[in-house]
Design the sequence.
């Protein structure tokens, strides 16, 4: 009886454990880059999924900034989400590295799933070699023209119906059917010739250009899925770039990129709502913001709608496009459940929730032709605008995604680095595009060659690292080999090592170890996901012979050092002299000047970006006045050679002034050097000044013969640290200019960051880091070598 009861207890416990195991929920992580406007729909769809699948919980995360870099880092560290948002431009960098699950095998296990319901135009760009890796959720054709009905009515032009065309010359005989004729007659200027309203503006500078050359049959690459040849030197592409530049710089019917960026840090949508642009072209995602900014009854309201962008004169239309979907990371522990979630979020439930916001056109055509995407009888009044939303479906057959290989962004970045000069009017397309194509093609060829490298030998690498550590230890302890110590001294030494062992381990693990790994990786091709591959001295050869931005970044950083370091030291010294007085309230002034040093680097960059703004910035407002026609202290005339087409200096948007502007900005941090020099000044013995005064020395002579020699060690320290700091400029360049215009502010550290964290070429970035280390080491050594001017008390250094 007792034995039977025991068996029953064990059976009961087993059943209980099985029930617990069966009832334990499965947790999935879902990551996207959507902002606040879309997250309500995302959360709603996720909660619906949880109700439909009670054993699954979904944690939704929004990563708006640096999404791709963070997702790759998470995958490399083993903390990737189960399902992630993805787009055609980026999915290959994951798929080629084995980071995504192919979806085709899952289709066979889901008989009711119908891929044919999706727009084929968005399915193919998410495929690689016939395998689908991303299930589309939305498509976003960029051939949508937003137009101001009031502007059309005032100009006596019928509202566009999408049947208009364009040619490289205006065709007055076609009137409203000719796009150039329309934007010409919609443009307005004041009595002084300043444009008060442009006829048309693209959402970004290349949108119209790409639409032009792609509609004439030209393509920037031979194969958009796996490009091997660049074609920026195609005569049709050259003509398209020049055509766009002329519309801005000659006809003045379209604002230049400089004018768009200088309009109070705005964009073309805001220029449209402000009445400064009669039409602008973009994607449908602009609608929610337009509804918020253009409410009936508010000041400046006007009626608006959308139309399809014009075709080429022969009827050909090709529009750039956006779009996205959801992928399953290969590291997921729950692939079946992740597939259920992907189907839900990129299926009818998820698409309908996003369609309600008016920003994401469903990738399933049936849903894109019905409510809530297309306004109907059940659509709220505020969501009825735009009325012509059916255009979003009509544009889809004409969309074309750009090249999608992982190597393309870096190679095309090299090719297009100087294209901004075309839009600025400082160079022609014929001068820029062929040379850019040549440099970009060389870069693309070099990157494609890296796919066939041999694996990195970690055994030899570990032995080499151990040898380096041994040589370092020998270099430290070899001079002490002949020193004889007593037993007590030896015991004290061993005890001392015990006390410093935590620091030694930290040094090896967090400083020396990473440095040795970086040195090893400088001889390899490594993307932190796939195993490293051996390159030998290939990275160093590449930067010296193939990478044009290496030499550009060195030149930019050297020029900045020459400008900013003397300027910063001089300003710090001037402040220190000014504040080295004994008057009431001096500590407060010292604090005020020091505060910018501890301020956020990004915040400081944004402040200065606003100050340097061409239109509405404080600097230009002082020089040119609020109306743009002033001449404060004659500065406007003096700066005329540096002015743009509007007669104002575009401090950050011009190659002539961008680097100098950033050097001036460096004064912002002069408070740090001021504190150091102030300490040096207060260490100068007062009796030296008294003796010089008794000898009849003037203030300038006392400064030159007493102050400068006595603070020369402090000045020398400021110079050394200033030079080192100038080679580490990164934050301000990234935030304010991102290396532009035309690489004019492509600092060395920014170049290193782009290669390491954007292009994922950690091996090449490691080589760049070691070259930087050697450059700084040599420059510091030279400064010490020529430091005889530095006075040390007692004559000792």
Sequence:
């Amino acid at each position: 009886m007792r034995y039977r009861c025991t068996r029953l207890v064990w059976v009961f416990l087993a059943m209980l454990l099985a029930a617990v195991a069966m009832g334990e929920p499965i947790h999935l992580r879902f990551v996207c880059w959507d902002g606040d406007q879309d997250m309500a729909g995302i959360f709603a769809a996720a909660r619906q999924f949880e109700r439909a699948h009670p054993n699954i919980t979904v944690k939704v995360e929004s990563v708006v900034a640096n999404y791709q870099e963070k997702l790759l880092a998470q995958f490399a560290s083993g903390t990737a989400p189960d399902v992630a948002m993805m787009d055609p431009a980026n999915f290959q960098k994951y798929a080629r590295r084995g980071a995504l699950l192919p979806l085709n095998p899952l289709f066979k296990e889901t008989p009711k799933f119908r891929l044919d319901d999706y727009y084929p135009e968005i399915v193919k760009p998410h495929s690689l070699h016939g395998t689908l890796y991303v299930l589309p959720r939305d498509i976003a054709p960029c051939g949508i023209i937003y137009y101001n009905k009031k502007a059309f009515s005032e100009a006596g032009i019928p509202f566009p119906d999408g049947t208009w065309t364009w040619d490289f010359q205006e065709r007055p005989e076609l009137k409203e059917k000719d796009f150039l004729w329309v934007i010409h007659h919609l443009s307005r200027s004041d009595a002084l010739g300043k444009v008060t309203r442009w006829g048309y503006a693209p959402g970004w500078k290349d949108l119209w250009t790409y639409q032009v050359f792609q509609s004439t049959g030209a393509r920037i690459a031979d194969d958009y899925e796996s490009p091997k040849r660049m074609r920026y030197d195609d005569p049709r592409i050259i003509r398209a770039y020049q055509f766009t530049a002329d519309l801005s710089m000659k006809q003045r019917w379209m604002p230049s990129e400089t004018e768009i960026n200088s309009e109070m840090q705005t964009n073309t949508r805001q220029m449209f709502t402000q009445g400064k642009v009669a039409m602008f072209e973009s994607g449908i995602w602009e609608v929610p913001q337009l509804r918020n900014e253009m409410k009936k009854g508010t000041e400046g309201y006007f009626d608006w709608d959308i139309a399809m962008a014009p075709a080429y004169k022969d009827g050909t239309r090709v529009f750039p496009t956006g779009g996205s979907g959801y992928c399953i990371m290969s590291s997921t522990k729950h692939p079946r459940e992740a597939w259920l979630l992907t189907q839900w979020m990129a299926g009818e439930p998820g698409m309908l929730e996003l369609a309600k916001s008016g920003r994401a056109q469903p990738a399933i055509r049936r849903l894109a032709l019905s409510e809530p995407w297309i306004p109907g009888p059940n659509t709220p009044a505020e969501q009825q605008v735009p009325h012509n939303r059916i255009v979003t479906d009509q544009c889809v057959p004409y969309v074309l995604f750009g090249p999608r290989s992982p190597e393309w962004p870096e190679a095309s970045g090299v090719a297009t680095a100087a294209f901004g000069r075309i839009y600025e009017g400082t160079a022609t397309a014929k001068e820029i595009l062929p040379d850019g194509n040549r440099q970009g093609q060389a870069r693309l060829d070099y990157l494609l060659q890296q796919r066939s490298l041999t694996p990195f030998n970690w055994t030899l690498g570990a032995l080499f690292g151990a040898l380096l550590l041994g040589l370092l230890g020998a270099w430290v302890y070899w001079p002490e080999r002949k020193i004889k110590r007593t037993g007590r001294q030896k015991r004290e030494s061993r005890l001392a090592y015990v006390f410093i062992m935590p620091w030694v381990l930290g040094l090896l693990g967090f400083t020396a170890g990473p440095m040795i790994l970086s040195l090893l990786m400088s001889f390899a091709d490594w993307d932190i996901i796939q195993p490293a591959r051996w390159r030998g001295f290939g990275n160093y050869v590449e930067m010296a012979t193939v990478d044009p931005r290496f030499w550009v970044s060195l030149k930019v950083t050297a020029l900045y050092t020459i400008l900013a370091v003397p300027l910063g030291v001089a300003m710090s010294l001037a402040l220190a002299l000014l504040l080295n007085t004994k008057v009431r309230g001096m500590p407060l002034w010292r604090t005020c000047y020091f505060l910018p040093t501890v301020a956020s680097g990004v915040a400081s960059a944004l402040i200065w970006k606003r100050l340097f703004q061409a239109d509405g910035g404080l600097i230009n407002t002082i020089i040119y006045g609020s109306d743009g026609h002033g001449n404060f202290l004659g500065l406007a005339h003096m700066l005329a050679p540096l002015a743009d087409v509007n007669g104002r200096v575009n401090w950050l948007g011009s190659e002539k002034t961008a680097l100098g502007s950033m050097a001036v900005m460096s004064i912002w941090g002069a408070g740090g050097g001021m504190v150091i020099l102030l300490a040096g000044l207060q260490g100068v013995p007062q009796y030296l000044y008294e003796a010089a005064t008794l000898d009849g020395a003037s203030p300038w002579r006392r400064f030159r013969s007493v102050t400068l020699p006595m603070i020369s060690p402090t000045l020398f320290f400021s110079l050394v640290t200033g030079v080192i700091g100038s080679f580490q400029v990164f934050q301000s360049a990234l935030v304010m200019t991102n290396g532009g215009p035309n690489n004019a502010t492509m600092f060395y550290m920014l170049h290193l960051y782009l290669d390491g964290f954007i292009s994922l070429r950690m091996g090449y970035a490691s080589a760049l880091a070691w070259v930087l280390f050697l450059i700084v080491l040599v420059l510091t050594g030279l400064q010490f070598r020529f430091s005889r001017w530095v006075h040390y008390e007692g004559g000792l250094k």
In short: The first helix runs from residue 2 to 23.
